[in-house]
Design a protein that fits this description.
The chain has helices spanning 8-18, 50-63, 65-72, 92-101, 119-126, 157-163, and strands spanning 25-30, 36-44, 75-83, 108-114, 130-136, 145-151. By secondary structure, the chain is an alpha+beta fold. The protein has one domain (5-163): 3-Layer(aba) Sandwich (Aminopeptidase), CATH 3.40.630.30. The chain has a 6-stranded mixed β-sheet, sandwiched between helices. It starts with 7 loop residues before the first helix and ends with a helix. Pfam families: Acetyltransf_1. One of its GO terms (molecular function) is acyltransferase activity, transferring groups other than amino-acyl groups. Keywords: Transferase. Residues 1-148 form the N-acetyltransferase domain.
Length: 164
């Protein structure tokens, strides 16, 4: 995602902290020579996690606490999905999403992505994710995001298991 250099230490700290969350899982996509070309990770979302609490409040305001609990009450929060540009559009992201989500015990999965027409957003929609909030700006931020959610297992999970 090429964040500004001044954000790198903060992002590394956030990612390091995420590894301590319940049921943290990370997947890595590699070339045949072992060179990484992508990674994705997530964890069980719960109260007192910053992203979870911020989105819970926003979903409650938009649709009521029942809607927020329906999406976030038992969820896999996907925090990061990154694919090297040379490997985008070739199934790497889809394979990582299935590897991350398939077999999880949670009822739903939620994530945030830039609120633009991107390959990532197209991928998420094709996996069954729907827009929960759009044009969303996180507290202290300025970029617009889409908050998306999907029921688990993801759309195409049986096909992914068969093709593995």
């Amino acid at each position: 995602m090429r964040p500004p250099a001044d954000q790198l230490s903060g992002r590394k700290s956030i990612m390091r902290n995420h590894t301590t969350y319940p049921d943290f899982t990370c997947v890595l996509a590699e070339r045949e020579d072992g060179e990484p070309v992508g990674f994705a990770y997530g964890f069980h979302g719960a109260a007192n996690q910053w992203w979870h609490d911020v989105i819970y409040r926003s979903l409650s305001e938009a649709g009521g606490p029942e809607a927020a609990m329906g999406w976030l009450g038992d969820t896999l929060e996907i925090a990061e999905v990154h694919v090297h540009p040379d490997y985008q559009g070739k199934g790497t992201g889809r394979a990582m999403m299935h590897a991350l989500c398939d077999g999880r015990p949670e009822r739903t999965s939620v994530l945030s992505t830039h609120d633009r027409r991107t390959a990532a957003r197209h991928l998420y929609h094709s996996l069954g994710f729907v827009d929960l909030l759009t044009r969303y700006v996180f507290p202290g931020g300025y970029e617009r995001y889409a908050i998306m959610g999907a029921a688990l297992p993801l759309k195409g999970a049986q096909d992914a298991a068969r093709d593995a």
